[in-house]
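name: query_chain
kind: protein
chains: 1
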Amino acid sequence: MKNFKNGKRPPAHPDPRKKINDIRRSEKTADAVEHASTARKTELYDAAEESATVNENRIEGRNAVIEAYRSGKTIDKIYILDGCQDGPIQTIKRLAHKSDTIVRFVDKSFLDHMSETGMHQGVIATSAAYEYAEVEDIFALAEKRGEEPFVFLLDGVEDPHNLGAIIRTACQVGAHGVIIPKNRAVGLTSTVARASAGAINYVPVAKVTNLSRTIEELKEKGMWFASAEMDGDVMYDCNLTGPIGIVVGSEGAGVSRLVSEKCDIHVSIPMKGALDSLNVSVAAAVLSYEVVRQRLKKK
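structure:
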């Protein structure tokens, strides 16, 4: 038998495969920590941005939010502490559902970061920065100008910068208004106002409960509707004159099936690049200027 120094066997030579696996596990752990940290920073940034942009139309606290609903104030979005189930919160949830308010369930740190008073009580709501118009106001503006109605209908646009850009385009092309749905869509926040570069003061924006039903009602008034879709007819081959509504969809899903079925024609923008689509606000601008071109040509 071989004698070992101090009577102790030296440690076994490390298995290189085990060492490699240990290194890989460490790298995965580090990546996970970094990813979590990045996600957390993003969450805090979003909260900070929300706090900065809707400060003047933010409502904090359970009673304040409930009374805002009861007074008829338009609430665009509401943030509720995830897991909170007590009586006042349940009341707020019911009021939000009845009003088609967008509801986000978030953690306490999100609300703490967003809160200015420190007394949010698990709920913060954001109200519209500007008053909404009625659909009738849009037609009244067209009549006042002596023009055939020209309207944008936005099916689920959630990015405030896109909504603001579309309102700005609507102003510049001479459209008479923008119609948005109450649910699953951004409202008139101060971010939207800034992105519109002041156009929000000149373009009526109406909020409706059901976009498909609104299209049907407006058809009875002589309107017809063109939906922006990838597989539609090329816009240059479509008649976009007369009293028209241009319908564009959400950033990800496009125009929903129910809304698309209500439209009279489906219009596409010719594209030659490697990408398959345009930003929704850009697409709205391109289509609207084709409407302008055809109207000018018709005169």
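note: The first strand starts at residue 58 and ends at 60.
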